[in-house]
Write a structure and sequence with these properties.
The chain has 13 helices and eight strands. By secondary structure, the chain is an alpha+beta fold. It has two domains: 171 residues, Beta-Lactamase, CATH 3.30.450.80; 82 residues, Winged helix-like DNA-binding domain superfamily/Winged helix DNA-binding domain (Arc Repressor Mutant, subunit A, Orthogonal Bundle). The strands form two sheets. A six-stranded antiparallel beta sheet has the order 3-4-5-1-2-6, sandwiched between helices. Strands 7-8 form a two-stranded antiparallel sheet. It is elongated, with a radius of gyration of 19 Å.
Amino acid sequence: MSLYTPDETNVLFTSEHEITEICQPMFGLLDLEYYSYGRFYDDGKCVLLSTNKNVFENHFKKEYKLTIPPNEDSLTQQKIYNLIMIDDELPEIIADEHNLFNHGVMMDLIKKHSHYYEMFCFVAKKNAIDPVNKFLNSLDKLDHFSEHFLNCAKGAIQTGHQNIIELPPSMKPLINGSSNVESIGHSIYYRGISIPLSKRQIECLSFLTMGKTTKEIANILQISIKTVEDHIKALKLKLNCNLRSALCYAGIQNNLTTLALELLRRYEVI
């Protein structure tokens, strides 16, 4: 166990059964493998709860950063959904969870408050059927559940504050928009807000901006059409738009046609 792992009496390790009981309805609805809750303060202290203490034990053992908060521009939004795909460009922490704990596609719901933000993390099973659509069709349910969870887990959260976790420097989230862009992908500017995208999402958006079809993008990136479709759904969620034309407009605004040409050369298409 890492030097930085919280004491075994911490609520993170003693409330596993309670948290699992609270989450049972969502596990059945969305075919989930895992759920976690984190309340992260600006000074790096946090309260953590989850349905599997081994996941966080692994995080502390390897000193992963537990989360990267939304940047300053996106903090104007009090509620942010972040859909994380399982592809070949995974951050180490997510790849580790995928391999060790049967984790598949995940959806983070982030809620910003004056001195802290909360992250509700819903993780589908690795072999779940069509988890992307399940998540996207259940956004209201996720939001309602987050309020239900806060009410049911009030005692555990209060206990967590009594023995709050102070993260070591290596694990502290980077606060106030100081995140290293390479660690989270890229950002585009849309509707007055800077929106972080993964490497694959920025690639798909760049090719959409060039007028490439889903099939053509899949061929260029050597991934399945379904994976491209899922990335496009994630883009629509992050940019809060339903039409491909709106995605293309966002790409044009950010000069992604130039990036698309560079990517085509990189992938030896031209």
